[in-house]
Structures
1.
Amino acid sequence: MTPRILVLGGCGGTGGRIVAGLLRLMPRATVDAGGRRPPRHGGAHAPAGGGRWVAASVSTTARSGRSGGPGEAGADDDGLVALLSAYDLVVLALGPFATLRTAAHAACIRAGVDCVDINDDPAVAREIMDLHETAGAEGVRVLTGMGVNPGLSTALLYLLAGERGPFAEAHVRLFAGGNEGAGRASTWTMLHGLAPRVCELRGGFEAWVPADDAGPRRDDVFPGVGVSVPAIHCFSAEAALLELSAARGLPLPADSVTYRMHFQGMPRRMAGVLRRFSAADHPRAAAALTGLFHAMHSMGSAAARNLARSTLAVRCRGGQGTYTAFATGETTFGLTAAYAAATAYRHLRAPDALPPGVHATTPALPWLREALDDMAALHVRAAIIEDA
């Protein structure tokens, strides 16, 4: 059977890449790009990533549906539910998730269709995981946090721990190179992680700590870069997902995990400015600063010294030594799209391999290593090295 897939947000920068990745992995599949308005490029029925545009909108307000909770799909969303029910899988690439919360997930559950999301908001991650029993009762599988971090970083962390761990500590680092041709919405989502307080995994539990851009870990050396660069403290939904997965009986790959990013084109001082005007407390100022950063990044990308690729590195330390797993691709958003597309592809090949409910990236995904191999077809390379 030829699968039918809808990518909500498929006309955006990351969503378009997911559409293209799905079509590359499944050339015979029907892949539609859902959005509120037609794309500006290639005509109303030709999103940038390929596929066909269909009108779709997700409400961001509370509805008076069956359960009536905040952010849930209700009676007014019957049209969306009917649309979703025509597909075998829905990929949620719209955002920001801090605004949408679980509305799209609730619509998928009502429609009885499995979904994959790329959520990277820590608070929303817990709300999505709380849908586990509801999704299970409806026979729906929700695969959450299937982006670059959480998602790809989590897969590398678990695979590294399976071969050489478990580890006492791990450090996740993302190098956003100079070839990030993403829109302002994707940029806003990335910069949303620059908050006054960030979350890490400490002793197996998510912990919120003051952001520290001047401490001993202020700089890092990434595989393939070769020089020390600023590493800005950021939060990640991965800490919450690791904690919640462990509560279900899955092993922790590391007791403690930290998260930092390097943005080419952004001075270290700008991170402090962005933290003072966080998106949660100052949405208008954050939007203006996002536009400024997007312009600075575009100009900085043209500099000859900039690396026109992005790299995700997971560095782990334990009793047997220090090891690094890394993945590199053309862009950060391309890394997100590749992992999401590979996850969707593998899930559609064996949809009954997971029980109904909500699942994050863990060793319970039977095709975890195969998904990483699939990413090679999407121009993403992953490897494990032993540090000297």
2.
Amino acid sequence: MDQVQADLFYSPKRTLARAHHHIEVLRSKTDDFMNGRAPGTYMIERRPGPKNQHTIKFDRDFFEELCSIAFDAANNLRSALDQTAYATALADGTLKPKKAYFPMAGSLEKLDDVVKGRCADLRPEIIALFRTFHPYAGGNLWLAALNTLCNTQKHATLIPFKTDKHQVMYVTKGIMLGFGHRWDPQSFALELLGLNGADFTNGGGYFAFGLSFASSDPVIGGSDPAGLLGGAAIQVDRVLKETELECQRLGLS
């Protein structure tokens, strides 16, 4: 018997591993960007005058690539949860499960409706186990954030600053300077405010940008994208391992 046949949870484990790969790629690329190691990802324009206004225009293609990586990771994590649920239904003898999903909802009240509509092919013990992970907004913040991300449009979802911070930092000779900014999502550009005549077009330092999801949700918008997805991956791994143990207890594996 090969590994696929022998391991009931082979598919979700592989999908979870793929999510981890995407998260590490995202973490590497975002770390480079936030620490001045990603040349060509932005361009600084200065408008001469008393205020010496600066506009930073970002490479939209670079951010679209980061978005794709982030959402590949999120969708892999969501798929791993559903594959875990599906595997338990197969092990329980359902030949072609049609309602064997991991339940996630926008609130505790809505979770019951999701369970009724999408989990009919799962054993009560498995549903009870899934409920213990509190997979709804106001419960498990990591799983709730994952659910929100998987229902978000990809376009321009990552932005080059923290949505809960009001400053962009410039690092030069070990000194960090903070400036306010105005974001224009149409041109994908930041206008720096309060420069007091300073000129940053001649080099000598670098901008230490933040990076976040463009979301009004304080957890999603205020978190490091790779860190948020990494936290969700830990929860998915926990679901997978505890479900595997429960199936062993029930004699399904």
